[in-house]
Amino acid sequence: MRSQQRRKTILRNVIVMLGVTLIVCLCATVFAGAEGETTDVAVNAAAESAVVVVSVDGEDVEYDLADAEGAQAYVDSYADNIQYDPNVQTNIETALGTVRQDVSNYATFWALIPPLVAILLALITKEVYSSLFLGILCGGFIYSFSAAGYNFETTFTHTLQDGFISSIADSYNIGILIFLVMLGALVAMMNRAGGSRAFGRWTTQHIKTRVGAQLATVLLGVLIFIDDYFNCLTVGSVMLPVTDSHRISRAKLAYLIDATAAPICMIAPISSWAAAVSEYAEGTQYSGLELFCRAIPFNFYS
């Protein structure tokens, strides 16, 4: 009886997810088509030949705002341009107009729809991974519909090949994926070996109050500073039965774990973040470790 009810619940959640995603994509197609027509006229008038030179730290960077790639590069360098380009407001509007010739939904209200879809579906269905996947899929369809001239076949191909397949084929993304799988396997092995249960038995003898359980969570989160992902997986699996026994909400446990994962890892010289930051030391006058240590005062909370 329970398995039958569960199958019905899963089927209902899948239908809701697909329905919401389909409706959003169709609405994006209809409204983006109308926006795209007005955008083309404005761009043709504003950006026939617009070459902008921005001096960043003494080095001149040239952007052709009438070209899609040059306009995209200018938008991507917004942090530098807002500081060094005195005409940034006018130039950013021109650059966005050029980009919207190819992708009419770019930097519009529709950019907020994918995360809203993911959050809404997660609240309705309680399925986080499926909701995130459909949110990403929804964003890919909205972008591709606009870029592919509202052709469904081209949109599907672009979303699949240029989105999922190209991301998986990237060596950096594959490295992160393998790293996360190994961390998950390590935590699962620890749980199967009885490590979490043994720690739970120890805590029942030494931790008697709700405050003590929360302090133990914070202390464990500070001690496991090697990697923020490993911190979340380990502290979460170990402290969950402890906090449940003291009637501490899981939302509060999640907050405590999040507040002691990346923030601590970002100021620990021996961590995965230190190795990642060291890659950016090339071309500077500092070594990787020295650059990381000098950045610590600017990483109060990450």
Can you put this structure into words, describing what you see?
The chain is mainly α and 302 residues long. Helices cover 74% and strands 4% of the residues. The chain has 15 helices and 2 strands. The protein has a two-stranded antiparallel sheet. Helix 14 (272-278) packs across helix 15 (288-295). The two termini are 47 Å apart.
Write a brief caption for the model.
It is built from 15 helices and 2 strands. It has helices at residues 2-46, 68-76, 78-84, 88-102, 113-125, 128-147, 152-169, 171-192, 195-206, 210-223, 228-245, 250-259, 262-265, 272-278, 288-295; strands at residues 51-56, 59-64.
Range of helix content: over 70%
What is the number of strand segments? 2
- Give the DSSP E fraction (strand runs of 2 or more residues): under 5%
Which spans of ≥5 residues are poorly predicted at pLDDT below 50? 32-48
Briefly note the structural class of the backbone.
Answer: mainly alpha
Assign an overall shape: globular
Going across the biggest sheet, name each strand in turn: 1-2
Output the number of helix runs: 15
Distance linking N and C termini: 47 Å
CA gyration radius, whole angstroms: 25 Å
Overall pLDDT metric: 76
Tell me the series of helices and strands, N- to C-terminal. HEEHHHHHHHHHHHHHH
The biggest sheet, with number of strands, parallel, antiparallel or mixed sense and barrel status, is: 2 strands, antiparallel
